[in-house]
Structures are given as C-alpha cells and as structure tokens.
Amino acid sequence: MQMSSSPTSSMEKRPEITIRPLCEEDLPSADRIMRLAFGTFLGLPDPLKFMGDADYVRTRWRADPSAAFGAEMSAELVGTNFATRWGSVGFFGPLTIRPDLWDRGIAKQLLRPTMDLFERWRIRHAGLFTFANSAKHVSLYQKFGFWPRFLTSVMELPVDSESPSVSTRWAQFSDLSVGDKQLCVQACRKLTDSIYEGLDVEREIRAVDQQRLGDTVLTWGGGELAGFAVCHAGPGTEAGSGNSYIKFGAVRSGPKAAQEFHRLLDAGREFARSRGAGKLAAGVNLARLDAYREMLKAGFRTTMQGVAMQRNADPGYNRPDVFLMDDWR
Ligand SMILES: CC(C)(COP(=O)(O)OP(=O)(O)OC[C@H]1O[C@@H](n2cnc3c(N)ncnc32)[C@H](O)[C@@H]1OP(=O)(O)O)[C@@H](O)C(=O)NCCC(=O)NCCS
After folding, report:
1. % of the chain with per-residue pLDDT over 70
2. Going by CA atoms, what residue is nearest to atom 44 of ligand 1?
3. Which residue, judged by its Cα, is nearest atom 18 of ligand 1?
4. 144 in contact with ligand 1, CB cutoff 6 A
C-alpha cells in the first residue's frame, strides 16, 4: 500500500521516495539502517556495532506493526520510523535515514504519516527524545510543532551480584494467571491515569510478556498496586546482554510517592539481579525533579542525556511531583 509519495524539490533529479508500512521482510534492512545511521552520527569506528546486541526495530515492530513506517527509494528501504501509543500519549523513534541520503527531506516525509497516525490515535500529549546538542535535530522536529523542553537523563545503577537482597516484596507479571494479568493491566492503567489522564502502557506490558523481553515488576501497598516497572533484560531486547532496563516505571502520586518510588527501584534492582544483569538502566525527564533526585540518592548515575521535545510545549506528565521513569528513546 502506497501512503504518500512526492518528488524532491531540488534542481537535481532524484528518485522518488515512497512512504509505506514496514513489513516483516524489511526488518533486517531496517535494523541495519538504524545502527548505521546512529553509529555514523555518533562517529563510531564501526557504526554497525551501535547498541551491540540490543534491539529496537524487531521488538517495536512486533509490538505494533501498524505503527512502523518505511521510506523506499528505487525499491530499496532507505529509512524508517516507529510510533508508540501509550493511551493518550504518543511518541516516535527511532527515526533513521541511510546516511548517504541525509538532508534530502526523507525524514520530513516519514514524519508526515506519523503525525497523521497521532491524529487518528487522538494523542493528547506527543513527544520525542533527541540529541540536545544537534541544531539539525531540534530544527527538524520544530517544523512539526515539537519544542525542546527539559533534559532527559538516561541513568545506570551498577547491580552487584554479591550484595544482600533488599526486603522489598515484589511480584512479576509473568507469574500471574491470564485472568489476573487482565486485572493487573487494569490496575496499572488506573495508576497511570491518576498521573496523567489516559496514560496507558498496556502495549509495553503485553509486548514484554508476549515477546519474553523481561518482565513487569509489581509492588503493592495498602491492598492496591503501589507501583510497577516494565523491564527489559538481555540480548534482543532494549537492554542488551548483561543489562536490564526500565522502559517505563511509575508509582502512585501522593504523600508516600517518594518512599514507594524507592521500593520500586529496589524491586527493579532485584529483578535485574535475578536475570544476572550487571547494570540497571532507566531514564527520567528532569522536569520530574524529585524522581531524578531519588534516583541519584539510590546510586544511579547519568550515562547519557538528551532533550525531550513536546508538541506545543505541553508539559504532559512532566511535573515535579510525578515519580515516573521513561525516556522516549
Ligand atoms: C536525523 C535524521 C533522521 C534526519 O534525516 P534527514 O532525512 O537528513 O532529514 P531531512 O532532510 O528530512 O530534514 C532535515 C532538516 O533539518 C534542516 N537542518 C539541517 N541542518 C540544520 C542546522 N544545522 N540547523 C537547522 N536546520 C538544519 C534541513 O535543512 C532540513 O530542513 P529543510 O529541508 O526544511 O531545510 C538523520 O540525519 C539520521 O538518520 N540521523 C542519525 C540517527 C538519528 O539521529 N535519528 C534521530 C534521532 S532523534
């Protein structure tokens, strides 16, 4: 199915670009382009080694094939973009173009159907994570109404296999029955909805469960769900070998939020240890200042920082009282 097509406006005659849904057969090329593009941009000696054995392309495609777009030129895949819907919240990435074709408007063409998809999904809060130091990146996304807001820190906590385990009690989504999984997803939705109306990460919980990418760690308090963290672990996931990564984690807001957040971090570390991971990674938007401070207190250190760009500069759930981890990478 052809979704859009337009000739380039330059004087030079260039092949036409077609934007179309990404199919399963595209995944090896899509993965290659993603690594080559980031590896080249970051100046790696071997760009294709970007991210090692971690994966974004296959796991995101499997989570929702209808939200992945490809740019094709002369019957060859030359760029891709992936959109994610978390209920009323949407973000996109990784957006990557084959390096020899940069600055020819291909990313802009891929972004148009992505914006249409956000419209169809009725996304209220839309954003992306990008390189804060790149004028090109910031300017590209501004053309679509996204404005740079706060830094997002991607942080890491060393996980020592020797140290004694903590007393926090936690459960794993994968241990629940089918019926209890349904109830648990509802409880997670209720928790995230109390932070930002319509925020719902069922897609991530289900993707991790169905693709066996890790597990969702659950903490309870006062008879209800106090917090949860959707964790990836190991090769072929967003964590990579030897690592664990909290893709999304949050606790209920309120007077006990900081304490519950600390328990969730402990549970995340225990999960990482149970998977033999030496590190636990997690990202936080620095507008969530108290969450960032708690992570520093718990021993997390920033390994990389980028900027969150938000459509119409809408703050969404990036408030100081929100104890939530995500990084939109
Ligand atoms: C970032 C990336 C996706 C952009 O793709 P692209 O096809 O080169 O981008 P486009 O040509 O569609 O658009 C780039 C826009 O930025 C503008 N631009 C380039 N350099 C700029 C600068 N220094 N300041 C301001 N604008 C700049 C271009 O002029 C163009 O806009 P225009 O056509 O309206 O003039 C591509 O470079 C890439 O794959 N990079 C490596 C991976 C990556 O960083 N992905 C994004 C992660 S958030």
Report:
1. 94
2. 38
3. 136
4. no
Sign for the CA dihedral angle at 233, 238, 240, 242 comes to: negative
Q: 279-289, pLDDT tens digit by residue? A: 999 999 999 99
Residue from 32, 91, 97, 101 to probe ligand 1 pocket by mutation (most atoms less than 8 Å from CB): 97
Asked if residue 94 has a cis previous peptide bond (ω within 30° of 0), the answer is: yes
**Angle, nearest 10°, between helix axes 135-142 and 106-121?**
50
**For 153-185, how does the pLDDT look when each residue is reduced to its tens digit (9 = 90+)?**
999 999 987 766 667 799 999 999 999 999 999
Nearest atom of ligand 1 to the alpha carbon of 97: 39
Which pair of tokens denotes residue 321? 């009282």
> Which residues contact residue 4 at a Cβ distance below 8 angstroms, ignoring those fewer than 6 apart?
18, 19, 109, 112, 113
What are the residues whose beta carbons fall under 8 Å from the beta carbon of 96, sequence distance 6 or more? Answer: 33, 34, 36, 37, 38, 79, 80, 81
* CB atoms near residue 103 (< 10 Å): 8
In angstroms, rounded to a whole number, what is the distance separating the alpha carbons of residues 81 and 114? Answer: 8
Dist CA 29 CA 93 (whole Å): 16
